[in-house]
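Hey, I'm writing a tutorial for new members on how sequence and structure tokens pair up, and I'd like a real worked example in the thread rather than a made-up one. If someone can provide the structure for the chain below, I'll link this post from the tutorial.
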Amino acid sequence: MDTDTSDLYSRPSKQSLQDTFVRRHLKDVSSPAAVLDRAIVRRNCQRMLQACESLDLKFRAHVKTHKTTEVTRLQVGDSSSTARIVVSTLAEAEYLTGSRHEWLDDNRELNILYGVPLPPSQAMRLGYLGKTLGRGGLSVLIDHVDQLDAICTIRAISGHTVNLFVKIDTGYQRAGVKPDSVQLKSIIDRVQSALEPHLTANLCGLYSHAGHSYYLSSRYNSMWQLQEELEDLEHAGATIDEIYRRRGQPNRRFILSVGATPTATSIQGLQDNADDDGVHQRQAEGFRRYIEDLAIHREIEVHAGVYPILDLQQLDTRINRRVPSPNGQLSTADLALTILAEVVSIYPERGEALIAAGTLALGREPCNSYSGWGRISPWNTTSAETGWMIDRISQEHSILSKDRGAAKPAELHVGQKVRIWPNHACVAGAGFGWYLVVDSSLPENQRDIVVDVWMRCRGW
């Protein structure tokens, strides 16, 4: 296959979707529907860019959560010369590349990292993607020496040297090699001796994903995890430096790419931590000094994906105490995605209700703080404290029951539209082809009016 796969997935045009939904009130929209608050997305993206800029860090935006050009534009901002992207599917990369004129300024370069350890079967598609992106535009991830044979195919088709990141396992144990492992050394030896001399590949960085940070419970624990992640990558970098020195070659100023939303977001507010206690102030100052020292010989890059949208799982990590929320903690007012659903039946004898939205609209991932599959509120509120949660879930339906520990639940009625705060925004969004966009920064009587439709990429 020598082209992208976007033509395999038919979908309506954006214009037809806008004609159908824009200016309609959410109460008149068929459900289930995925609703995104543009003002919250913009605020969350600006926070991340400002935090990285304050520490002189590079930022790589993961697009796997939303898969849209509009949110990608907000993620990359406009201050850097290169828009750095990481994708989970080649369909995302092809979609963004084919529509780059819609979201990326002409004077900016685009670098896309395929964030899955390289599948040999995808070498041809990656080659054509690299050809489209041009020199330096494509990066791939490797964590096994047998993946390197595919690099030659990518190089031959693209006509450009392939940028390589080695995936390092810093504790999540999903993918990657250990910082001082024999496997890492065999990868580097093969790259350095067989690929780089022929300009087939360029080892440019080390990459890790701190997925285990989702189980942390404070911003400062997340910050500590981020520093440990950097230390592990620097350990791997020292291993690589030694291999290059033995061959008489100078050290590289590798990119150390770290993050996950809990750890990446922990750096927000570091430039203003006057309200923290003495211990936390010292921890924040120590982290800043560590970053400054490391940046002398490494380029530090932060990556994250769900942060523009956020979800109930992220509330559990309490990743940022400096947000515009009444209780000073991250709250549902900072969550951009809710699922519009309708109450279709009430069961008073059971104290339950039925909604016409199930696993395919909400996902089925747990949350540490409660036993349900989503929290419920009336549509026109920004609080999930109504006493209802999704207790049981099936493919197309869910059962609402009283949220354990909550006060008496609010009354529900058949035909009522409710909003569902999903546990995991990445999975909940996957059931929809587009987002209905609202804007909470508008006057109150306009906040439930659809102002745009943002189409999601589909496929693999």
